[in-house]
Design goal:
CATH superfamily of the largest domain: Glycogen Phosphorylase B
CATH class of the largest domain: Alpha Beta
CATH topology of the largest domain: Rossmann fold
Radius of gyration: 22 Å
CATH architecture of the largest domain: 3-Layer(aba) Sandwich
Helix content: 40-55%
Order of helices and strands: EHEEEHEHEHHEHEHEHEHEHEHEHEHHH
Number of strands: 14
């Protein structure tokens, strides 16, 4: 099959989880014998065209914009123009695959102009992120999501939770939606060689302190404030011997203020962005990873901790309970409950043998359920289903 993919992010441009998803899924589809052309946005000094693990990557320039929504409009115009020329110069594309509403306008236009079936992967919804639609921008984006889901031949989502969400929020029929989990390349989390783990750990905590960390964006939906509210209870259970490392970009000032107000400022370490190299090192010295999301379509950060062999505590928000099996591959707690979260963290920290068994089970689960080669085969099956239906109609 020859597939045109539209994605507003692709490495080295990293905004959220879509970049990782598309950069790890499509090499596996290439290995299955498919011809993949991916159109994305220019970034830094990355070449406008290159081949990445067999994917033909086309980066387009976007005109300067006054705001984000105007930028998205300009991006779709650039993608549409470029893709139109590509489809005319290289015929016989079988499918278009669009990732999220941001590329929806271009994908829908190309579908109708060239009469090529379009598949959409919806990674999250605006209503889900904000727990409702409260502003004109929220409604605008949600309408774009609804249009994309309506025009798509099939809709792919990353969890059963997201299937229910796109049904309820976007009015998408159950039998139009396919659930294909996100995956991970566990080999990317190999333990670093030749580094002084004791010295590295001393940058974050004393030898007696347990190291608990969160990694992700500093946004309300990620529930970091819930983690901070749980810290006093965890410290009480550890006789004060704990350090909480908060990793990730974004505005952390309100969270820092919260830590100060709670009297736990000296127990919290806000490190901001951390390079992959340092994160790989850090995870070898951490005792527990915590992801207390209030909204989470899937939770690929949990898979990264599985691969790094760090015991995981998550909330039961969204797709996280599908990723982390409570009592088997991690601990699942009640969302937005500091008491429940503190209990889960202490279960890990006070029961090292139990934590070690969870880690082993979680690592084995990566191959069973979250292997990109297997997920690519599932994606290929959706492609073949669409092409079989397309062959039966006159368009």
């Amino acid at each position: 099959m020859k597939v045109l993919v539209l994605s507003w992010e692709f490495p080295p441009r990293l905004v959220g989880g879509i970049a990782r998803h598309v950069s790890e899924l499509y090499p596996e589809l290439v290995r299955l014998g498919h011809d993949i052309h991916l159109i994305t946005v220019e970034f830094g000094e990355a070449p406008l065209y290159e081949e990445v693990e067999g994917i033909a990557v086309h980066r387009v320039r976007v005109r300067p914009s006054e705001n984000f929504l105007q930028w998205v409009t300009n991006m779709n115009l650039s993608m549409g123009d470029y893709a139109g020329n590509l489809l005319r110069s290289q015929p016989n594309f079988d499918l278009i695959h669009a990732h999220d509403w941001l590329v929806g306008d271009a994908a829908i236009a190309l579908k109708h102009l060239f009469r090529i079936p379009m598949i959409a992967t919806i990674h999250a919804t605006e209503a889900g992120r904000h727990r409702g639609l409260y502003t004109d921008v929220h409604h605008y984006i949600s309408n774009k999501e609804r249009l994309l889901a309506h025009d798509a031949w099939r809709v792919i989502v990353c969890s059963n939770y997201m299937r229910q969400e796109v049904m309820g929020v976007l009015g998408c029929p159950y039998d139009k939606v396919d659930v294909i989990y996100n995956g991970i390349r566990p080999e990317k989390k190999q333990k670093p060689q030749e580094f002084d783990a004791i010295e590295f750990r001393s940058r974050f905590a004393t030898p007696a302190e347990k190291v608990v960390y969160y990694v992700g964006r500093m946004t309300h939906e990620k529930g970091v404030s819930v983690l901070l509210d749980a810290v006093p209870k965890v410290l009480a259970g550890l006789d004060g011997q704990g350090k909480f490392v908060i990793i990730g970009g974004g505005n952390a000032d309100p969270l820092k203020h919260q830590a100060w107000q709670l009297g736990i400022w000296d127990r919290c370490y806000f490190v901001g962005f951390m390079s992959d190299r340092d994160l790989d090192r850090f995870q070898t010295i951490a005792d527990c990873a915590v992801f207390p999301s209030l909204y989470e379509p899937f939770g690929i950060v949990a898979l990264e901790s599985f691969a790094a062999r760090v015991p995981v505590v998550v909330s039961n928000a969204g797709g996280l309970p599908e990723v982390v099996q409570h009592g088997k591959t991690g601990i699942v707690t009640w969302a937005n409950s500091p008491d429940s979260l503190a209990w889960g963290i202490l279960e890990i920290l006070k029961n090292p043998d139990y934590a070690a068994q969870l880690v082993e089970n979680a690592y084995q689960d990566l191959e069973r359920r979250f292997s990109w080669p297997k997920l690519a085969q599932q994606t290929e099956a959706v492609y073949r289903h669409v092409l079989a239906e397309r062959a039966q109609i006159i368009w």
